[in-house]
Every structure is written in structure tokens, then in C-alpha cells.
Design brief:
single chain, about 230 residues, mainly alpha, about 80% helix
Amino acid sequence: MRDLRRLVAAVVIVSFSLAALLGIAVLVGAGEFGDTEAQVLLTTVIVGFESVAALCYLALAGHRLALVGVAGGVVSLVATALALWLTWIEGYGDAQVWQAFGVAVTIAASLAQVSLLLALVGRRTSPVLLGGTLLAVTVVAGMVVLPIVTEDVFSSGYWRVFGVVAILDVLGTVVLMALGVFGGRAEQREARPESRLLSAAVEARLVETAHQRGTSPSQLVSDALDAYVVR
């Protein structure tokens, strides 16, 4: 699994690096900025977003919920393919293609967010907070997909509810990410065995004795060990 993660990460980095080089070449190259140049730049942006999403999905590699990342990867590839299709193929930007693209992007972005949250949360994270945030992510995605699929014009009340749920979604995400990052570090410190070889009192005595003898603490310890071994 670790080798697979490295392989996917390498592919993502190389792909976006090539796209970025093409974008830079278009911007600094000579000639008039036309449709082709705009398409190349848009392709760079598309590959960049796909790269970021892929890294989010990859965070669940080896996780018990790795299927969430796999599902996100599949949907994001569909979204990327549709985006490239709309960018380069003329005459195929009909309503159904745009609908499929909007739905795929929404689901892919939601799964990327979920993947990142699941990868960051630790044992101390409240199940209620995690469950509530994941529910908010799901509701937000559903409320975005519904107007795209139905093509209906929803009332302001609908979008007010959407705004409230979206705010809760962002709030829960920020809190969970903060707990995941800083709480994880705290867990690692607690799980890590005592790394100090000497207590503070012994260190202070060592420094004081070395100062009195006109030598360094390291040299004093070395001399003491030599004397001990000789005995």
C-alpha cells in the first residue's frame, strides 16, 4: 500500500508539473494570446484541481475506509474528463454534459473533503462532531446537485437553509482539522516513550560540575565513563 501511495503521488506530481510547465510556456511565450492558449491554461487549472483532489483521496490509503477515497478518485476522473472535453471539444457543451460535469464536480469535491477529514481525525475526536460534519457535507452536496439535475429555480428559503448548512459544514471541517492536526501531535507526544536520558536535576549537576572543573559536560561524561570502564 505504501508503494502504491508513492506511485500515485509521483504520477500526480509529474502530471501537474507538466501541465504547469505548459501553462508557464503559454504565458511567457511569444505570440498573440488566443483560444488555444486559453485552453492550455484552463487545462493546467483542471489538472491542478485534480491533483489536489487526488492527494486528498490518497490520504485514506491503508485506512479502513479507503473505499471512500477510491470512490472519490473514480468520480474525480469523470469530472476531469468532462472538464477537458468541455475545454477542447467544440459543439459538445450541451445541457446534459454540463449537468453531468456539475454533479461530478460536486460529488468529487465532497468526497475529497470527507477523505481529508477521515484521514486527519484521531481517537479523541468526538463522534458526534464528526458525524454531524459528514452529514452537513452530504446535505450541502445534495442541495447543490438537486438544482443542477432538476433545473428548477428554488426559493430564497431553500438557499437560506443551504447557507446555514454550508456554514455548519465549514465550521465542523475547521474544528475537525484543527483537532486532527494538533490533537494528533499531542497523542504522539503521549505515546512516545521518555526521550530524556537524564533528569533535569542530573543535567544541572553535570553542567555545574563541568564548569567547576573547567571542562564541558560532554567531556566530563566521557572521562567518567572511561574511569568507570577501567575499574
